[in-house]
Each structure stands twice: as C-alpha cells, then as structure tokens.
Amino acid sequence: MQMSYAIRCAFYQLLLAALMLVAMLQLLYLSLLSGLHGQEEQDQYFEFFPPSPRSVDQVKAQLRTALASGGVLDASGDYRVYRGLLKTTMDPNDVILATHASVDNLLHLSGLLERWEGPLSVSVFAATKEEAQLATVLAYALSSHCPDMRARVAMHLVCPSRYEAAVPDPREPGEFALLRSCQEVFDKLARVAQPGINYALGTNVSYPNNLLRNLAREGANYALVIDVDMVPSEGLWRGLREMLDQSNQWGGTALVVPAFEIRRARRMPMSKTELLQLYQVGEVRPFYYGLCTPCQAPTNYSRWVNLPEESLLRPAYVVPWQDPWEPFYVAGGKVPTFDERFRQYGFNRISQACELHVAGFDFEVLNEGFLVHKGFKEALKFHPQKEAENQHNKILYRQFKQELKAKYPSSPRRC
C-alpha cells in the first residue's frame, strides 16, 4: 500500500513538473513571438524616428570641440564658420528641413520642431561678439534641456571673421544657468532677444543668407530650404518620406512646396482645408503677393487651390521655370549650391533657382503640402538703406546668368 502511494506521488510530481515545463515553454514562445512583433514595430518606428544614442554630456562635448576648433573662414574670408555645434544622425534618404536665422530669430525654432517631425538643420548668424557669446550659451542650454533638440537638430554658427565664438563656462553661463526646462530656455530667449528681419541687423555686417543656406543643407541628400519664420503644413515630412521611399524617380526633379503668408501668426493652418478657409476670407495669400508677385506667380496658386482633395502627397502638375521665380522645393542628388556672393536682400534665391533650371531640373508642384510665412510681407517694411546692396545683387545676377552659359555649355536652357 505504501509502495503504491509512493508511486502515485512520484507520478503526480512528474506530471506537475511536465505541466510546468509546458507552461514555461509556452511563456517562452509567447515572449519570443511578442519580441519579434515588438521588433517589427520598433523597426517600423525607427524607420521614421531613428534613435539618438547621445547623452547630454556627449552633446556638450561636441559643442565644446566645435567651438574650440576656432572655426574656419569662408571662401570670401569675411566670415568664420563653426560646423556642428549640435549634430544629428540622419538616414541618408531622409528629408532635412534646412533654415537660417540671426540669434534673435531662433525663437521660431520651437514652432518648427512642433510641425516638422524629421531632422532639422539651422545655421545661426551672430553679427557681433556679444551675439556670438549668446549663441554659444544658447546652444549649451538647448542641448542641456531640450531632448528634441539633441535628437533631431543640427546647429552651425557663422560670425564675422574678426570674432571668435567662446566656449561657454558651465560655471558662468549667465542667467541661462538658472533654467531647468526647454520651455524656460525659449522663454528666456524671448525676453533677451529682439526678433526682427534677418537682413536688417542694424550693423555694418551683411547677412550672408546663401552661405547660411549652404551650411544648413550641407551633407543632406533631400532638403527643404526655408526661412526660419515659415511653418510647414502638418505631416509634410512624413508625406515626403513616404513618397520618396516608394520610388527613386525623383532625381532631377524639384518638388515645389507652395508658399503662403498669413496676416496674423496666432492661427497657423495645419491642413490644406484650414489654409483654404483662411485663403477665401483674405487672411492668407500667396507668398510675396504684396512685394514681388512675379517671384511666386509661376506656382499657379489658382490651379493649386482648386485641386481635388487627396490623402497622399504627390506632384500635381509641372511648371516651367521662368525668371524671377524663386520656389521653395525639395530636391536630391546634385543640387546646385546657393551662390554665396549674394548677401543681404535681393536675388539670392532667384539665382539658385535659375541655375537649377539650367542644370536640367524640372519643377513639379505638390498637391497637399504647403508653407506659411508668419505675417504679410509689405514693401514699406523693407529698409531703404539696403537698396544699395539690392542694386549690387541685381548687377551680380546679370553677371551670374552669363557665367551659367560657360558652366553649362551643352544645356539648351537659359535664364
């Protein structure tokens, strides 16, 4: 009887152990299955949102290294360039939003980060020694308190060649040392900055807009180069990524993003539906409408606003380039650089669009995406003292068009 009881106990113990083993194997299987599914989800996520392995200390170290280098002089010798104060890793097939600003106008970065989900590159111009110091301290503060800046933003600095940007001392970074959050950094910048027009800096230093544009888009395959006080439509980056990933047919094509301007910047439209509602009541109008209508007219706004609503971003129609069209566009491959001889105001973007045309690029207008400039641009708001430089750029543009004939002797296209 005792033998039979012992056998039964051993049998039940063996059965229990077998059941536990089966349960453990099932848990292991489910865990592996969940892990594989999770990895698939993670892979899809990181396809659009690559991880940033950099810590705050690593970013600060990079900033210090960039500043300690002393920078390099540009081709003219008039400006000192510091590359990579902040860096971001980027998929080579990604679309980067490239922009430029004086230190005071960096306030607009916060809004760009909200609308643009992908990598962003900004070139900052500091016209004085004090602004160069503010720019370095600001980069230090942003790298410390803004995870989004560390993950997605590259920042470069340009200042007059007679100045050198200082490496900020963490013990004496001024009032920025008291800040504890990203919002506090931008709030502090709002209090110390005097936002204005980039090319009206109140100094005898010319704003090197084309140098800054080239620096911001340097190393990018596809880039959308805009002014810092413009805002893209919601989802534009994702739509561009999906469209470009589905086909490699976009080489030699400039994908034009229609640009508008809004009377009151408090209500920035997110979708085309919202934009058109404001457009119909006169709160939104084509970019440069009151300043240089021909500079944007070839976009054919009347055709664009009447396109049927679609869910997918795609090119809607082809537009032949004509002088003085200066569209905002996305293009990859061997895109001509901006001619850095053009500074301040006048012909700086037109010249690059002209060369893009002569180099063989075609212009196709996108159906859904758009840009909105904060505020109406009016002729009276431009500074008369800059007229001399505008005339200089006008003469330079004539020379530039003649140079293109020698640069592209086999091209049938001319500006």
Automatic annotation (TrEMBL):
GO terms in the biological process aspect are: protein O-linked glycosylation via mannose
How would you describe this protein's topology in the membrane? Single-pass type II membrane protein
Name the pathway it acts in: Protein modification; protein glycosylation
Give the record's keywords alphabetically.
Glycoprotein, Glycosyltransferase, Golgi apparatus, Manganese, Membrane, Metal-binding, Signal-anchor, Transferase, Transmembrane, Transmembrane helix
An MF annotation (GO) of this entry: glucuronosyltransferase activity
User: What Pfam families has UniProt attached to this entry?
Assistant: Glyco_transf_49
| Cofactors required | Mn(2+)
Query: Where are its TM segments located?
Result: none
Domain of life where this protein originates? Eukaryota
Q: Which reaction does it catalyse?
A: 3-O-[beta-D-Xyl-(1->4)-Rib-ol-P-Rib-ol-P-3-beta-D-GalNAc-(1->3)-beta-D-GlcNAc-(1->4)-(O-6-P-alpha-D-Man)]-Thr-[protein] + UDP-alpha-D-glucuronate = 3-O-[beta-D-GlcA-(1->3)-beta-D-Xyl-(1->4)-Rib-ol-P-Rib-ol-P-3-beta-D-GalNAc-(1->3)-beta-D-GlcNAc-(1->4)-(O-6-P-alpha-D-Man)]-Thr-[protein] + UDP + H(+)
Q: Where does this one sit in the cell?
A: Golgi apparatus membrane
- GO cellular component: a single term: Golgi membrane
The record's similarity note reads: Belongs to the glycosyltransferase 49 family.
> Which PANTHER family does the entry mention?
BETA-1,4-GLUCURONYLTRANSFERASE 1 (PTHR46420)
Q: What is this protein called?
A: Beta-1,4-glucuronyltransferase 1
- Say which species the protein is native to: Castor canadensis (American beaver)
